[in-house]
Amino acid sequence: MSRQPVVIIGSGLAGYTVAREFRKLDAETSIQIISADHGGFYSKPMLSNALATGKTPLSILNANAEKMAEQLKMTIRSHSRVTAIDPSGKSVTLRDGEKLPYSQLILALGADPVRLPLEGDGVDAILSVNDLDDYHQLCTALQGKKDVTILGAGLIGCEFANDLAVAGYRVRVIDISARPLGRLLPQAGGAFLQHRLEAIGIVFHMGAATQRVERIHESLRLTLDNGEIIQTDVLLSAIGLRPRTALAEAAGIKVNRGVAVSRSLQTRYSDIYALGDCAEVEGRVLPFVMPIMHAARGLAATLARTPTLVRYPAMPVVVKTPACATVVSPPDPNAQGEWLIEESESGVKALFQSAEGKLLGYALLGTVTKEKNLLATQLPAVME
Ligand code: FAD
């Protein structure tokens, strides 16, 4: 008996990986991806280290929607936004009012960049890069420009700073924290990273908050809360992402920080699932590639009628700052323990250990990153 298609909302890594994994298990059931964007497949992590190697938006695109549809034997509706989900009628509504039925629905909606509530007439010139179209916009904005200021010294902010500096731009980074990657690294690690990034010309304004952004002819003028004034050509915001939850919430699906799902990635409706940056799996929002790969495999098995719980091993994250090799596996926020830190000129090895000496997390910078795989084998699973 033919069933209604499995419908996936979103053509990012989460949407495409679950489609690909499901196809390996089921060659027959029709799959439909609905995407608000172009629907092509590309590696999003590449966006924050593409400028230095001269990659264009086109060269980053692995395959357009048409090619992906052919490869995975599925239908892709690109530039189509889902505006409503009807869980009891088992259909989704597109912006133009068209209704599409589903047998199972996967929410792979991603996340929105967080915007700071800033004052001034330059606020709408602030860019953020969370997809290929944004990267295109950044490349256009950079044409003929020299100075770039980045709001946020987190993972993505530091990666863009390194990339832009190597590409020849004068780069400043502003953050309210005392050190870059403040949420992921202990103080010594942040200081080491900052030092290495400063060595390639990046200027940090740490412990400072941006208050106003004004347009002054072709450039932007920032006023910080410490009274500092910064003039810049291009302003890039990288202060974090917020899971896209509005569509789910309007359909009566439980939402916390992300779309709340169980370990089978199921919402409160048995045929609606979520994964990727939009999802909160048993209380955890993990907006990274590795959790998506594990979640997609588990979900594909569940969709193919082998109910499967997602399991996350330890998943260290490589920070793409070539000026300072960095790998982090942050301890669980509730973990009890302390950082043990070894510093040298060539690196920082920070191990987060329990009172019993069990390794619960690490931050490795510089030459000690070569120990990342060996140490990873000692780390606890993120979700057994
Ligand atoms: P997205 O890729 O955001 O996809 C969401 C999709 O949903 C899009 O196609 C969008 O159009 C669609 N959509 C949303 N709403 C609707 C709607 N209503 N109707 C139809 N379609 C809709 N992670 C790592 O592990 N390592 C890294 O080095 C790394 N580097 C990164 C660098 C950058 C610059 C960024 C931004 C992220 C990086 N990440 C990295 C994170 C990683 O890329 C993301 O976790 C991952 O790509 C998220 O995939 P996703 O499919 O969940 O979301």
UniProtKB/TrEMBL annotation:
Keyword Flavoprotein: yes
Domain annotation FAD/NAD(P)-binding: ranges: 6-283
Annotated ranges, domain Rubredoxin binding: 310-379
Keyword tags: Cytoplasm, FAD, Flavoprotein, NAD, Oxidoreductase
Subcellular location: Cytoplasm
Primary localization class, coarse: cytoplasm
Xref: SUPFAM superfamilies: FAD/NAD(P)-binding domain (SSF51905), Nucleotide-binding domain (SSF51971)
Domain of life of the source: Bacteria
Entry cofactors: FAD
InterPro entries in UniProt: FAD-bd_OxRdtase, FAD/NAD-bd_sf, FAD/NAD-binding_dom, Rbx-bd
PANTHER family recorded: NITRITE REDUCTASE [NAD(P)H] (PTHR43429:SF3), PYRIDINE NUCLEOTIDE-DISULFIDE OXIDOREDUCTASE DOMAIN-CONTAINING (PTHR43429)
Entry similarity comment: Belongs to the FAD-dependent oxidoreductase family.
Name recorded for this polypeptide: Rubredoxin-NAD+ reductase
Organism in which the protein naturally occurs: Nitrosospira multiformis
Taxonomic classification: Bacteria, Pseudomonadati, Pseudomonadota, Betaproteobacteria, Nitrosomonadales
